[in-house]
Design brief:
This protein has 165 residues and is mostly helical. The protein is built from 6 helices and 4 strands, in the order H-E-E-H-E-E-H-H-H-H. It starts with a helix and ends with a helix.
Length: 165
């Protein structure tokens, strides 16, 4: 019986260690000090009734590598040791919402996170395009969801119902 109790305690400890260490490998959310978010300063064009500045996507392979390096060195993540195909360099404030290509708006986002947050971006931008939402509100929503990805499904449902009105 004592062996069984020790085995169970050992198993629980191992599970806790593995789950804690997995989350240490990559960021779940953008780090607000390194990636506070930034909007487009020099526009390629203007979009939506609000006429927000729009920057074309322009992030070199070298800058992407530097973003990974920054998150790993400064925050202790291990993104560069993982499969690169499991990540993208995300625009914290999406380009379609007027986000910039500056380093302050870029972070390494793992697929388990972007699978949750990416579906909101086109819905928010569609609401902006139809004049149903202003840029400031859309940015506030996407920031909140990217800081709390577990809220993405409910937020998406709410936004889709707003879009149908």
């Amino acid at each position: 019986m004592r062996f069984l109790k020790l085995s169970i305690v050992s198993l629980i400890t191992t599970i806790n260690f593995v789950s804690a260490s997995i989350s240490d490998w990559f960021p779940i959310t953008p780090n607000e000090k390194i990636t506070p978010g930034d909007v487009c300063d020099v526009a390629n064009s203007f979009r939506y009734p609000e006429r927000i500045k729009y920057c074309e996507r322009e992030v070199s392979r070298e800058r992407k590598a530097a973003i990974f390096l920054t998150y790993d060195r400064e925050l202790g993540f291990h993104t560069r040791e993982m499969n690169r195909a499991d990540f993208k360099i995300d625009h914290y404030i999406p380009l379609c919402m007027g986000g910039s290509n500056d380093d302050e708006n870029l972070w390494p986002q793992h697929k388990t996170i972007y699978q949750q947050t990416d579906p909101l971006e086109p819905v928010l931008c569609e609401l902006m395009a139809s004049g149903q939402m202003l840029q400031a509100k859309a940015i506030s929503i996407i920031r909140s969801v990217k800081q709390h990805p577990e809220t993405s499904e409910k937020t998406l449902r709410d936004l889709e119902s707003q879009l149908r009105r």
